[in-house]
Specification:
alpha/beta, 6-stranded parallel β-sheet, about 40% helix, 11 helices, 7-stranded mixed β-sheet
């Protein structure tokens, strides 16, 4: 692979393996170490990167002075502690969302990043999708005039296992948080208040008993007074669906891409087309571009985006939505501190 920015990956689950494949083919990058509690899983993730070492000890990865940065793709409840640990080790950090599952540990992680002077980028890949980027450019250019209403949705093919939700924090910090970041990104506005209605309609009994939800409708009030409505479902059955629509005084812009290929079949049973099945089907290009952008920031000394502050803002709004669901009222984001 040759010389380049030396990176390590912590966490060799599905997203970690995908990032390893991306890094292995990214010019000017050298993937040197993959760490996972299951060393065999780490070996499988490292296969495509010649010379990459697999280990079950992330501490040794962080102790390697020649490694400039780490990619963190571990369960959500480990993110804040690993960010802080990596920052203290002097490593630049790319971490999958969310920043944390609570604001206290998020702030501790951000304090460690600030005191160490390292760079931190959060994994909100929709910001790197071509359609979202074009919509952002149109909105920033004022083509729609004054903003009035935003609609965003995320629908997963099937709900995750309850044990996964115990680590992820559930729909609010694992799914809704993407839509929250999308709203902030597209509009350039902050979310000031949140109202959520949510339900557990198809989760297994233990998921319901532990307070997890599978379906939610969230209303966001932006700082201009405009509104956003987000719908989330953990069971679409037909595949993975993500979209956004922004209305302004001069029209609207809509982002959506459900077709896996640009093919439709017409016959006596009607009109049919295929549909994206997974998040990787829909955002493969965006996942690659976010890592390329992170590496460019390391080379050029620029600040990455989305930043730690973006991650905190999205987390605060997601936690406000959770509180709104639990307490049945509008929640000001400022209440969370």
């Amino acid at each position: 692979m040759g010389d380049g920015v030396r990176l390590g990956v912590i966490g060799a689950g599905p997203m970690g393996r995908h990032h390893c494949r991306t890094l292995a083919g990214l010019p000017g990058v050298q993937l040197v170490t993959v760490a996972d509690l299951n060393v065999e899983t780490a070996r499988l993730a490292a296969v495509g990167a010649p010379g990459a070492v697999a280990t079950d000890d992330h501490v040794s990865l962080l102790a390697d002075a020649s490694t400039a940065a780490v990619i963190i793709t571990t369960p959500n409840d480990t993110h804040a502690a690993l960010i802080a640990e990596a920052a203290r080790a002097g490593k630049h950090i790319f971490c999958e969302k969310p920043l944390s599952r609570d604001l206290a540990s998020a702030d501790e992680a951000l304090a460690a990043v600030a005191s160490s002077g390292v760079k931190l980028q959060l994994g909100f890949q929709r910001r790197f999708d071509p359609a979202y980027r074009r919509a952002k450019a149109m909105l920033s250019g004022g083509e729609l005039g004054a903003l009035e209403l935003v609609m965003s949705t995320t629908r997963d093919p099937a709900p995750p296992a309850v044990d996964y939700m115990r680590h992820s924090g559930g729909l609010f910090t694992d799914t809704l948080i993407h839509d929250i970041d999308s709203v902030r990104y597209l509009t350039g506005q902050e979310i000031v208040a949140v109202s959520t209605a949510a339900a557990a309609l198809f989760l297994p009994p233990e998921g319901r008993e532990e307070g997890f939800v599978d379906t939610a409708v969230t209303t966001l009030r932006l700082d201009s007074g405009a509104l956003a409505v987000v719908t989330n479902s953990l069971r679409a059955t037909y595949g993975y669906e993500v979209g956004a629509e922004v209305l302004g005084e001069r029209g609207k812009v809509s982002v959506g891409q459900e077709e896996l290929t640009r093919l439709r079949r017409f016959d006596d049973s009607g009109v049919r087309s295929d549909h994206v099945v997974s998040v990787l089907d829909r955002f493969g290009e965006a996942f690659a571009e976010e890592l390329a952008s992170f590496v460019r920031c390391l080379r050029e000394g620029t600040e990455p985006s989305p930043s730690g502050a973006d991650g905190r803002a999205a987390l605060a709004a997601a936690l406000a939505a959770k509180r709104s669901h639990e307490e049945g009222r509008w929640v000001e984001v400022a209440e969370l501190g």
